[in-house]
Amino acid sequence: MEYNLKTPLKKEDIEKLNAGDIVYISGEILTARDEAHARILEMGDNKEALPFSLEGAVIYHCGPLMQQTENGWKVVSAGPTTSGRMSKMTPPLLKAHNVRAIIGKGGMKGVADALKNGSVYLAYTGGCAALAAELIKEVKAVYWLDLGMPEAVWVLRVEKFGPLIVGIDVKGKDIFAEVREKAQKQLEKQG
Amino acid sequence: MSTKISRESFIRSIADLLRKTETELPDDVVNAIRKAEAAEENQVAKFQLRAILKNLEIAKKHRVPMCQDTGIMIFFAEIGSEFQPGFDLEAAIREAVILATAEIPLRPNAVDPLTRKNSGNNTGVGIPDIHWKIVPGNQLKITAAPKGAGSENMSSLRMFNPTETGSIKNFVLETIVNAGGMPCPPLTIGIGIGGSFDAAARLAKESLLEPLDAPIEGLEREIFEAVNALGIGCMGLGGSTTALAVRVKKAHCHTASLPVAVNIQCWANRHASVVFGGMSNGI
Lengths: 191, 283
What we know:
A: 5-stranded mixed β-barrel, B: 4-stranded mixed β-sheet, metal ion binding (chain B), Fe-S_hydro-lyase_TtdA-typ_cat (chain B), fumarate hydratase activity (chain B), iron (chain B)
């Protein structure tokens, strides 16, 4: 199945998605990778309010290449980064905030339970940065530029951003885990 | 025949070479991805391979980097023993990297390994990483091969006992299974066998530059077929193309050792060359 979703995402938007479905997202998405995840968690621990809202949000694991022009920031290249690095920080982040979707590449280990009933993992084709940049229509805001260009939180307005493949759905079905398991079995057979 | 080139035109050429490398893939790599898309029966994988091909079209047309990870700057240089540049080539390459970083632009990726402080211009201690080889003749050939971290991070090296040649294939497969979707398959897998600890890694990296459409046999074929039978597929979501190609390079090694290195390359097997001097002077 193919779906077009608009942000902020509601729970019912993602409940209908099954692993393997194709999704396109329009609206706002926020980039966050290692350092931004660490800061979100740290601020939560200190009971500090975030400067942006994660309610119904879509987090994009992306360290974009941006260019500052006279008219503000321009996206040059913005493909997904390896989600595996954020695997440990994601369950506490999802516990504290109603993030409805995570976009990344390569899948995540041990997050299916944390996603269950509330969020989905959407796989974007790794390296497809020029394609992604075309679908990002506007840089709406940037937070935490002190972390550096790739690690800052960029709020982006996107149109029909995708194709995204539902890698882990709300029922806990995880294509990456299934493929990994099969590959492991095949390896044992061949070895 | 004079081998003189101006420092300015050399810097310009290297910066142009980097733009070409970052914005378009060699024909053999694009053809391998096209072939994979045509042969793929898994719909999820097919969809992604199409996205990759569309991404390549956009990057080439608009002359923008195909991937936001524009890599760490690696050059392979073959310098003719009669080639006389008349200026410091390494310093000029470094200047070209700084120029290209601002101009294309490239993401500044070079950081101090411990403080993690970013130099901001893709240069630093040992970066750009330039491998020099002296060859006969009066030409200078420079190949740029920027390498992204996603695939590099999943690469591996093991020192085997000399009698363990039969374990090489399994080591490669283990490395690929462990990597899963993280290094952005479909991959080119470079394998260096022999040499020494560092030479094996160099061989593995160099083998990624070999044409992907060359016929394969022996160990290359055996590993290629075994890797694709794993079913990891495009981006680890399943399918029949985990590797576009497997390339093996060997060197003699010490009788007591057997180093084996696996250098993983994502689908964006970026590399291009420029030749100076002799009859040629362009990309």
